[in-house]
Here is the input.
Amino acid sequence: MSRNLLDIQNLQVRVEDKVILKDLNLTIKEGEVHVIMGPNGAGKSTLGYSIMGHPKYIVDKGNIIFEGEDITSDKTDARAKKGIFLSFQNPEELAGVTLENFARTSKNNITGEQARFMAFRKELYHAMEALNMDKDYANRYLNVGFSGGEKKKSEILQMLMLQPKLAILDETDSGLDVDAVRLVSKGVEAYKNENNALLIITHNTKILESLSVDYVHILVDGKIVRSGNSTLIDYINENGYKDFVASTLSA
Here is the structure.
């Protein structure tokens, strides 16, 4: 029987004086794929940042439990070492640090061990090949001069190298053409196994086509207003969020 990996209990999160998430509850077990969907401004990215521990997002109440441990007050780096990964919607550029060095340093910090140089490079090149990334990108500064699609592939590459227990993908497929989405989906599929879990925040359901989705959650005005199976994706594609927004306003 799979165990709970993440438990979010009655979470309320604000940014400055504005409350974004309101008494949100979510449980993710090992081996599961969860999808968060909702209209713009619903709080989807806020949820990802809050799980990762971004200091801008203040938890007023509630708890974030990871593998049975309360991590609500943990700093971001501590959460990363415990096995949580967040792929950013808009990846940052980091001049002066190559993609390879960044990935190797990140892995060393998380595992607490020094990765053997040649073994790590072989693993990196293998992952890059799967994502159709030219090996020259390993020697380029992280995301500097990368196209939008290349930046998203870089994020998935880091996920494949770090092998987190919980990967949160925040709009990883936004701005990508069909071929790029297919390659990113391939990388996500390669990562997924029965011992880890995925939380995918998305508008573009193309990235979900090759994955077996266990739960879909509709987030409106900081609350999960509906949870269900993958048929909810088809409903949203056909009808949008108007029914869920209307029901929230009338509640």
About this structure: The longest strand covers residues 4-15.
